[in-house]
Amino acid sequence: MKNIIIDTQTSPMGARGLVIKTSPNDNVAIVATPSGLKRGSIVLGTTVLVENIPMGHKVALQTLETGDEVRRYGQVIGYATRTIEKGSWVNEGNISLPEPPKLEDIKYVTPPAPNGGVSSLSLPVGLKEASFMGYRNADGSVGTKNVLAITTSVQCVAGITNFIENKIRKELLPLYPNVDDVVAFNHSYGCGIAIDAPGAIVPIRTIKNIAQNPNFGGEVMIIGLGCEKLRPERLLPDNDNQSSILYLQDERFEGFYEMVDGIMEMAETHLQKLNQRQRTQCSVADLVVGMQCGGSDAFSGLTGNPVSGFAADLIVKAGGTVFFSEVTEVRDAIHLLVPRAMDATVAQKLKDEMAWYDNYLYQGQADRSANTTPGNKGGGLSNIVEKALGSVAKSGTSPIVDVVSPGEKVSKKGLNFVATPASDFACGTLQLAAGMNMHVFITGRGTPYGLNMVPVIKVSSNSKLANRWHDLIDFDAGPVAFGEKTIEEMGWELFHLILEVASGTKKVATDKLGLYNDLVLFNPGPLT
Amino acid sequence: MKNIIIDTQTSPMGARGLVIKTSPNDNVAIVATPSGLKRGSIVLGTTVLVENIPMGHKVALQTLETGDEVRRYGQVIGYATRTIEKGSWVNEGNISLPEPPKLEDIKYVTPPAPNGGVSSLSLPVGLKEASFMGYRNADGSVGTKNVLAITTSVQCVAGITNFIENKIRKELLPLYPNVDDVVAFNHSYGCGIAIDAPGAIVPIRTIKNIAQNPNFGGEVMIIGLGCEKLRPERLLPDNDNQSSILYLQDERFEGFYEMVDGIMEMAETHLQKLNQRQRTQCSVADLVVGMQCGGSDAFSGLTGNPVSGFAADLIVKAGGTVFFSEVTEVRDAIHLLVPRAMDATVAQKLKDEMAWYDNYLYQGQADRSANTTPGNKGGGLSNIVEKALGSVAKSGTSPIVDVVSPGEKVSKKGLNFVATPASDFACGTLQLAAGMNMHVFITGRGTPYGLNMVPVIKVSSNSKLANRWHDLIDFDAGPVAFGEKTIEEMGWELFHLILEVASGTKKVATDKLGLYNDLVLFNPGPLT
Ligand SMILES: [Ca+2]
Ligand SMILES: [Ca+2]
Ligand SMILES: [Ca+2]
Ligand SMILES: [Ca+2]
Ligand SMILES: [Ca+2]
């Protein structure tokens, strides 16, 4: 992002002519002035706006003829569908959507420089000393919260698990002060589904792997009904000795309140163990950070995402794990990602995940262009190509060491690609299954996104949102757009915030307010 | 069900030889003794059990050779895959699954007798006088509960609507004593979805129509984010003048608590109107009853479903509306349903819905055989054919006056088929959209199924379950299995219970306990 050129020249008509051009050969720039720019404003010296352009939207820096490339981030984001005069507003109405990169044409050539695993001696001072206070688990993973999770094997038990969650919170948690919370993982799967369809493996391993998220300390407690298609036994960790399963249809339960007693008793055995967890000093290498964006605008790719990407690079350099996701938002930038794969196998896995999703969308008579929202467009993102180029900035610059399929767990330290839909809660749910103990969520339009299983640091791409949503945004990357701070500076700030949140010394907004969304299982298979 | 033959002869080995044979030419019967029947028990005079058979399971009444038809309900439910000796246990291990009826081979011939709409003068006394106390709405529909519903256009607002739901319940409901409850309709749709894919119409109209359920009194209140793909305006009722939409991204809201204030204010305007609703005397013709079964066993088709079907016939005779659903559970009985269609158009619609679902499953590399669960099989239902034949019994015997697609509203009085998956909450959600003001849910294995938008009467197919789940089951149809009561007697009892619950004078189990499941939107389209 060294090529960002910021021009704060004030236009003769009084508007502050602030625009951002990402790459030297771009022929559009982004209006950064919060109130937008008026007709007559002069930007980058020679471009006079011929119409009003809102914040986040693109101005043509030269006259484009029909069919000309429109370039942002040094990449083609579309072709002019009519003559676009210099100084005009460039948007989805006057540019066409390019074809996505053909997967078979992307060749994997040279392996990148060896993995960021720089020896700790050579690390910069701030990174070498960095640590956080986490809960170390028997399997070596580290929790950032101490949560009793109630896994469910089927959707019909949710009425009861909701009831139990409240009861445990009220009656048991006060007795186990080291336990932060109790969370019932309710979902829409388990019965009335085609359990043998090829797509079924995705939701099943997702539920199984979420139960093993580091924040739950290996205390797996499963509530089933008894007659469901998804057998609760399939959700147990491999080589497990301490998990427990309870069936509501168990004949020993005479009526509802006996079920409740049975579950409360089981919960206590797990709470006793969880209550003994203590935070100890952990290294950055113990972080597993899931990066996601949602409700993006044109600033996301300029501020929030690259700042998060810089923090991601720091974590990877220090030996930690970071992953990014959202297949439909990397699909159009895949030609930039394949060359970053660690080796040819990883490169192929990356392309395979794209191909799988292309086919999944095709089956539903859609394609990746269905990703962009009215909000994206309102925020200045004309199409999925422009959105994707900004979205991948949150991956930083590290080599990609591995790719995992939806619902799978990450097993390698370094930067991973975790294949998921871009749909926010489907993505977050799969990232929980992948094993994240920290979530960074970047937004431009604003979303109240919150999960109660891991801390969610909400990063805003612009200060207008951060100011308005002062109690919902944790970190404002907006100052980057105005040149007030650099990406590097803010990346370090975000890195330090991640450590504080991971240590439990700083609470994120959604934890303060108790705002939590339900998880959404990605089920590519049919209902029956 | 006049052909049920019950044999209570005690076997020489001391087991009470209770079996049920549904149709005279059946060659299997169902073990009805709660403890199952022991080897050596004699049933129906001449059949000596050659092995132990659990309750709900089938005994061969004659020796079957490989390829022989296995008949229950007078229909072929499979073919013997090896010699099955008289007195043996017939189950999924020794019978094969027949092909589903070919849709193109089912011809619609004679229209049935004119719709049950017998004139009120000719109705039996108990039906003629029957009425309930409901909330009549401006559009003529009638509510059985008085609920403030908060509709959401997108999944990310759920953290906030959950927060609001609690706050309204605590702070506002005490001020509006005529309002029963507040319910936020959270779902997993609205963004990150292919809004232009052909399948998208299903979840969209479902959300829109649920907001118009009679129990909400036409007070539609929608919470959106602002940048979602599903525009909240699409969810407004047609010709609407009193609905309200609130966007969390509205720039007038500075932070979370201002959003909360905005929503609370909007809620009050709706609560004021809802609070003025009063119950008035309504006729059976104002009932809209959705029938569903879940966690079925072999008794479901003998007790719970036909008893519910008898009650359905009473309601239809009195001019009311009843619908049944669950495409995968009628697919194998479709040859019995098409002849009941009111006219050729309805017959074709019925077949079209089957064909749509066949294709939907095919796309996901599954078929209707994916429907049966381990619990069904454990309960004695060997395959989907046997399950379907029992499942359709809940439709009673009335002609089918109309067929509506998933998410559509029912518009005709009488018996309707509302096409839905069999998956319990997907089905219930679509039945809410179809406009039900009363839900009858039949279960054999037991499920804690509960919805807070309409009362759910839970009917058990066997007394063993009803006794064990004494506080979760509302109505035990089990006595029918033992000849203690007739289907007719119990059908009338269920009918009267429906009226009491519709009047609010009797509370169902899940309302007493406050056990409610989340709705599940059926989305045949892909995520992005
Ligand atoms: Ca995104
Ligand atoms: Ca996302
Ligand atoms: Ca919930
Ligand atoms: Ca069913
Ligand atoms: Ca069902």
As laid out across the biggest beta sheet of chain A, the strand order is 20-21-19-18-22-23-24
Domain module tally of chain A: 3
**Radius of gyration of CA atoms of chain A, rounded to a whole number:** 24 Å
Helicity level of chain A: 25-40%
Gist?
By secondary structure, the first copy, chain A, is an alpha/beta fold. Chain A contains 13 helices and 24 strands.
Description:
By secondary structure, chain A is α/β, with parallel strands linked by helices. Chain A folds into three domains: 96 residues, Roll (Archaeosine Trna-guanine Transglycosylase, Chain: A, domain 4), CATH 2.30.130.110; 130 residues, 3-Layer(aba) Sandwich (Rossmann fold); 234 residues. Chain A contains 13 helices and 24 strands. In chain A, the strands form six sheets. Chain A has a seven-stranded parallel β-sheet with strand order 20-21-19-18-22-23-24, sandwiched between helices. Chain A has a five-stranded antiparallel β-sheet with strand order 1-2-3-6-9, with no helix packed on it. A four-stranded parallel β-sheet of chain A has the order 14-13-15-16, with helices on both faces. In chain A, a hairpin with a 2-residue loop joins strand 7 and strand 8. In chain A, helix 2 packs across helix 4 and helix 5 packs across helix 12. Chain A is globular, with a radius of gyration of 24 Å. The N and C termini of chain A lie far apart (49 Å). The complex binds calcium ion (5 copies).
